[in-house]
């Protein structure tokens, strides 16, 4: 007759000699010992089987089995059940253990006690903790999300502090320590052989829940699990080298085999789309192997639909045998599955982690330097300034905010900045800033097309900033986007400057810069584009560039990282940031090129072996090359189509007033900025920063940057660029102004870090320091007050149009309704412009201004105004001109000739203005860009691919764990 023992342990081993001694000790230490042990060894090549026999044969009844090396875990458990049956044993409970799972002494007793208190439970599982750390939680029950993610409900890296103490129902428990009623395991059909290693616990729990059975997690029972297969510590013929593939395949199979039939098609679509997104995320994290495993797992499951159908039929039959016509217990399974929104929260968490890690490289360099200083005894373990101590006295965020002078001052500064930009909310234009287009589609067309319907047609490429504007405008809309750029650039510049200056302070001294000094430097930087008049004059590229530059500088600090891999990652991040800066401030690339050459050359003189290590000088060179690739659709066609001047000019409407050397020194664009003395404070403070010896070396480096920048500014300030149409424009000096004042600001902050070294100096020196501190404090305050009250007035000055309103409306309807505007006289010279669409918008200014003169159109207009010429009218019709307008004052001789020209009919116009309509109206206005159309698409594909690759290279490598 069968012997009804209480508990049979099934221990499956496979090359587990590293962990088996501890597992066997834990099994023998149980306060409630097992009645029989079935030890199944699946072809171990080490002494696993011998270890089991030596430890257990003298102590407990042992049934040993040896199976082939490719035996799956479900087959090993099935063999153990058959062995028990053939031995005449029918235990009530089966306790599954892995060869890498060590049970705590009271684990089995706690499981059996919970089973006695919950007689309806058929499956019980322990609390799993990490082995060998022993404290980190792995699982207290487990479920699965709609995307196949294994959900534990635990925080990342959570430690066991007794917080999970309640017995609760769960979808599944791990087979490492699972206590399952033998009759239930047999009724459910055992573990599914289609899941050889991973996922069979989730599948069994899902089938049990659908059959109306209860699975409990028992935290009082503790098992320590090494997760050897999951962590890749052990390779088997079933897992191979691609553990992620095996895990992902098991998850997909589990979802499709157990999911509801009516939603199976939608689930397949979701899994396909989810796999694509996961692949993109893994590629961004440079986990190429796991990305390929994702695709391979999906293909492996979907290419065998017959296996899915067979698995679903077997599950339906097992449930029908247990529940009859009641069908699956959908309410129970739905309650135990993970919420539908959980995968999306995880996606946001991962994205936030990647972005945070991508922006912390420079800070990591400073932290490692500080740690080294602590080891050398040059700094205490905690270097906190006196004015920060009270901030951490209370854990309440509100209390800390209202008791921190720095936090309050920062908030008031941001409010003042927003007050200064209060007029941009309804749309912003004026000065060098044109109105925004009606839709983001206008920007997309401008970026993608090789030929633009501007003037008489143009093949000059769109400015490089059009792409980021198109991306942002697709979300916010063009008007709101431009308003947001002008309104939020200053707060973003403040934030970026805070991060950059904080790292600079930590690189200069282990103590770092106090928060009040960081606030002063950040506010001073945020005010540079505002008090310079760039904001009020509509020089919006300089305003945006001021927000980008500190983030670029922060990324460039990664070049001093001792690890070559991190220096290369800094190169890609710096290159991307430089591309964005050049898109809005094109001359910045030339300036960065000269600065890089000088700085690398100076470093080579100081460190003679620098040039022999290519990983030291190649990353900065690669960062400089990135904009050449990313911005190729702009600069290369510009050179070929006669628009090379765009690489030297600031963006916006031209012409703009020239900038002198005095303006650069004072940080002003002509007369638009704040009082000159506000801008002169920074260079004076930077001069004073040369006095303290402790920080003189980094201050001299800042002055070197400023000196090189000034040398670059000299030829730019002395020459002028001749634009088509005879207009001359000074090359853009916005990048020069920003880098100059950024270098002076960094020098001033570094000098302020050494003020304590001057405390013992004579009183005249102390008085001078006090005066400098007062001036340094007053300068940003005056600038902030000036901008909040008067800084943005010039933006309200918008250029008017000489075109009648009804012509503007028709011009906006179609590009062939162009309006030719003639100004001047025959005696003094005639000038002409063409009005199309709704006028020139942001992004179109540079294209129109850089387009070479259309000689055929000029000849036709010259013939038209000198004598009635029917052929000239036909030429205008072909060029998409529907109206001719001559604003006041009108040249009578020109008007007389136009009146007499066949094909021109007089049109209504305001008093003092003459207008004519071309009859018949033009049919279309378009042009074929020829071979360059294909060339542009090729450059756009290179640009898109380069950006994707650079983003992947810029992000940190992925480090995965069970709860990542």
From TrEMBL:
In its keyword annotation, does this UniProt entry include Transmembrane helix?
yes
Q: Which domain of life is it from?
A: Bacteria
Q: Which InterPro entries match?
A: Glycosyltransf_2, Nucleotide-diphossugar_trans
Keyword list (alphabetical) reads: Membrane, Transmembrane, Transmembrane helix
**Pfam families tied to this protein:** Glyco_tranf_2_3
Q: Where are the transmembrane segments?
A: 475-497, 517-535, 580-604, 616-636, 672-691, 698-721, 733-755, 767-788, 937-958
Record flagged with keyword Transmembrane: yes
The protein depicted here goes by the name Glycosyltransferase family 2 protein
């Amino acid at each position: 007759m069968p012997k009804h023992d209480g508990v049979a342990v099934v221990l499956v081993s496979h090359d587990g000699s590293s962990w088996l001694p501890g597992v066997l000790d834990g099994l023998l230490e149980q306060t409630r010992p097992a009645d029989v042990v079935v030890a199944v060894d699946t072809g171990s090549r080490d002494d696993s089987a011998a270890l089991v026999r030596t430890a257990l044969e003298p102590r407990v009844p042992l049934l040993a089995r040896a199976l082939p090396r490719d035996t799956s875990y479900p087959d090993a458990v099935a063999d153990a059940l058959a062995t028990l049956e053939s031995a005449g044993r029918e235990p009530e409970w089966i306790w599954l253990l892995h060869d890498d799972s060590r049970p705590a002494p009271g684990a089995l007793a706690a499981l059996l006690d919970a089973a006695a208190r919950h007689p309806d439970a058929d499956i019980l599982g322990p609390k799993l903790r990490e082995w060998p750390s022993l404290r980190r939680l792995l699982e207290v029950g487990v479920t699965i999300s709609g995307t196949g993610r294994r959900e534990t409900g635990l925080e990342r890296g959570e430690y066991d502090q007794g917080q999970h103490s309640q017995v609760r129902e769960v979808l599944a428990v791990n087979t490492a320590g699972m206590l399952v009623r033998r009759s239930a395991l047999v009724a459910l059909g055992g573990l599914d052989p289609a899941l050889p290693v991973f996922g069979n616990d989730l599948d069994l729990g899902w089938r049990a829940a659908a059959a109306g059975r209860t699975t409990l997690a028992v935290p009082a029972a503790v098992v320590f699990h090494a997760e050897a297969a999951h962590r890749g510590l052990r390779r088997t013929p079933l897992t191979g080298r691609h553990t992620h593939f095996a895990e992902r395949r098991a998850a997909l199979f589990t979802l499709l085999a157990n999911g509801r039939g009516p939603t199976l098609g939608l689930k397949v679509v979701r899994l396909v789309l989810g796999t694509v997104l996961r692949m993109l995320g893994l590629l961004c994290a440079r986990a190429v192997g796991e990305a390929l495993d994702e695709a391979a797992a999906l293909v492996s499951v979907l290419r065998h639909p017959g296996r899915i159908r067979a698995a679903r039929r077997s599950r339906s039959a097992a449930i029908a045998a247990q529940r009859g016509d009641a069908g699956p217990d959908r309410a129970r399974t739905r309650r135990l599955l993970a919420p539908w929104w959980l995968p999306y929260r995880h996606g946001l968490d991962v994205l936030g982690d990647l972005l945070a890690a991508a922006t912390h490289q420079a800070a990591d360099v400073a932290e490692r330097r500080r740690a080294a200083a602590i080891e050398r005894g040059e700094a205490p373990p905690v270097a906190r300034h006196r004015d920060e101590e009270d901030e951490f006295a209370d854990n309440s965020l509100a209390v800390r905010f209202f008791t921190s002078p720095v936090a309050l001052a920062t908030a008031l500064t941001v409010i003042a900045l927003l007050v200064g930009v209060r007029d941009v909310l309804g749309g912003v234009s004026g000065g060098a800033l044109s109105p925004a287009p009606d839709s983001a589609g206008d920007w997309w067309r401008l970026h993608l097309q090789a030929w633009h319907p501007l003037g008489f047609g143009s093949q000059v490429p769109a400015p490089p900033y059009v792409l980021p504007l198109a991306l942002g405008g697709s979300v916010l809309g063009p008007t709101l986007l431009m308003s947001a750029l002008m309104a939020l650039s200053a707060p973003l510049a403040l934030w970026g400057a805070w991060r950059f200056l904080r790292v600079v302070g930590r690189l200069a001294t282990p103590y770092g810069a106090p928060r009040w000094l960081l606030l002063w430097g950040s506010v001073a930087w945020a005010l540079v584009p505002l008090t310079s008049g760039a904001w009020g004059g509509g020089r919006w590229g300089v305003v945006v560039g001021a927000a980008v530059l500190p983030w670029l500088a922060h990324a460039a600090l990664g070049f001093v990282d001792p690890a070559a891999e991190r220096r290369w990652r800094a190169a890609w991040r710096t290159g991307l940031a430089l591309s964005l800066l050049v898109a809005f401030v094109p001359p910045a690339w030339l300036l960065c090129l000269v600065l890089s050459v000088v700085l690398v050359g100076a470093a080579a003189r100081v460190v003679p072996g620098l040039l022999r290590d290519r990983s030291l000088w190649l990353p900065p060179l690669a960062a400089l090359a990135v904009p050449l690739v990313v911005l190729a659709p702009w600069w290369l066609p510009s050179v070929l189509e006669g628009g090379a001047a765009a690489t030297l000019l600031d963006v916006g409407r031209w012409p703009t007033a020239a900038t002198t050397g005095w303006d650069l020194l004072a940080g002003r664009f002509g007369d638009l900025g704040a009082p000159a003395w506000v801008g002169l404070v920074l260079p004076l403070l930077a001069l004073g920063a040369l006095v303290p010896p402790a920080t003189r070396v980094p201050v001299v480096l800042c002055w070197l940057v400023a000196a090189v920048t000034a040398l670059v500014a000299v030829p730019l300030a002395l020459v002028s660029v001749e634009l088509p149409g005879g207009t001359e424009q000074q090359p853009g000096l916005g990048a020069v102004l920003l880098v100059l004042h950024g270098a002076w600001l960094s020098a001033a902050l570094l000098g302020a870090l050494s003020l304590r070294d001057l405390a013992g100096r004579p009183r005249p020196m102390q008085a001078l320091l006090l005066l400098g501190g007062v001036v340094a404090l007053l300068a940003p305050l005056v600038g902030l007050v000036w901008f909040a009250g008067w800084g943005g007035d010039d933006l309200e000055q918008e250029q008017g149009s000489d075109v009648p309103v009804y012509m503007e409306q028709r011009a906006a309807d179609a590009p062939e309704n162009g309006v030719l505007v003639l100004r001047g006289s025959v005696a003094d010279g005639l000038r002409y412009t063409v009005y199309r669409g709704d006028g020139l918008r942001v992004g179109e200014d540079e294209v129109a201004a850089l387009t070479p003169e259309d000689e055929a159109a000029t000849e036709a207009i010259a013939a038209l105004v000198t004598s009635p010429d029917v052929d000239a009218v036909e030429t205008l019709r072909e060029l998409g001109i529907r109206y001719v307008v001559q604003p006041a004052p009108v040249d009578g001789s020109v008007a007389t000739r136009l009146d007499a020209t066949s094909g021109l009919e007089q049109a209504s116009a305001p008093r003092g203005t003459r207008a004519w309509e071309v009859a018949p109206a033009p049919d279309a206005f378009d042009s074929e860009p020829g071979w360059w159309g294909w060339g542009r698409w090729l450059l756009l594909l290179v640009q898109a691919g380069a950006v994707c690759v650079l983003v992947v290279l810029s992000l940190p490598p992925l480090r995965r764990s069970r709860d990542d």
